[in-house]
Amino acid sequence: MIKPSITEADLQAYVDNRLSDAERGEVEVYLATHPDEAQKLERYSHINEDIHGLFDPVLKEDIPGRLLETFHTATESEVRSNRPFFAGLWARLRDGAGGLLRAGGSGGILVPATPLGSWRPASFALTLTWLSLGVVLGWQMQHALPHNGMPPMVKHAAVAYVTYASEVSHPVEIQASDEDHLEAWLSKRLGINLKAPKLESVGFTLMGGRLLAGTQGPAAQFMYEDKIGRRLTLYVKTQEMKYDQSAAFEFSQVNEVNAFYWIENGTGYVLSGNLERSDLLKAAEASYQQLNAPDGILRDSNTKKSASTRVPTRLI
Predict the structure, then answer these.
(1) Residue 43 CB: number of other CB atoms within 10 A?
(2) Which of 52, 178, 205, 244 is deepest in the core (most CB within 10 A)?
């Protein structure tokens, strides 16, 4: 028997192969009479393929040497410097566990050893001891492991670029012909005054934009295209104070997607595209000049000299 209606959740589960054979059959019967939904699912499948193509190679990469060195090549001085901390930590946890055991014996802190068995205070003390140890060690390791410094928004922008830059029918949600509405809508959702940069000087014209879901709130995406069909996107996201680098201008590469990114006053910007670094830099400089530095051009910190010689003193 076919369900009265097929929901969006059913369609999503169909694309992800999470339905039983019977349920898949029901969805396929539904798609046969709803060609628009069938086309939508085809687009969904392309998104899955793009994401797998972007990130599957990362799963096959070897463990970075810097991580292995963290655990296997610590100097003797580092080992000695850590011994007092861990010795003191263990002593405090041991004393705390002993106090809990004594309190349990005299004050009646009891935890069941089994659902229907006897009550033992040691279970509670032991559990708390290991929990405390895990919390403290986890906190220490976040400082011990090296960080590559690249904010998560760079990968999010790359995924969004791969997902939408290849779209033929619906690359943007709102067309450039309705630019005022697009800018007002994205400004309201992000809580900032946001204007799409004009990149005609470097050969790219605004196609439009869309609202995206970021890890902590909404993000905006503007899309541009040149005369030969090359596309690039500008990703904008607020709430990036944790990664604020005082407007440092950085180049990054996520598989085949090149990107320049910068963060200023808690707002992050990522310009992404399958362009040569020099071409992308010109567009990034033009974007930065309009968005952040009307009186100057930001320099690429990874090159000795950028396409422009005008560099704000505070960014050198």
Answers:
(1) 14
(2) 244
Task: Say if strands 267-273 and 174-175 run parallel, antiparallel, or are unpaired.
Answer: unpaired
Nearest to 220 by CA among 249, 247, 194, 254: 194
Tell me the per-residue pLDDT of 199-246, one tens digit each, with 9 for 90 and over.
999 999 999 999 998 767 899 999 999 999 999 999 999 876 666 555
Inter-axis angle of helices 35-59 and 8-15, nearest 10: 50
Give the chain's length: 316
60/73 Cα distance (integer angstroms): 24
Q: Measured between alpha carbons, how far is 58 from 205 in angstroms, rounded to an integer? A: 33
Instruction: Let me know: does 287 contact 234? Beta carbons within 8 Å.
Output: yes
Q: What are the boundaries of each domain within the chain? A: 8-59, 65-144, 152-315
pTM: 0.50
Contact present, 236 and 191 (Cβ < 8 Å): no
Tokens standing for 25? 């059959």
Residue 262, C-beta contacts closer than 8 angstroms, at least 6 positions apart: 245, 247, 248, 249, 250, 268, 269, 288, 292, 298
Rounded to an integer, what distance in angstroms lies between the CA atom of residue 296 and that of residue 202?
Answer: 17
Q: Alpha-carbon distance 259 to 161, whole Å?
A: 10
Q: For domain 152-315, which architecture applies?
A: 2-Layer Sandwich (3.30)
Six-digit token string for 124: 């509670």
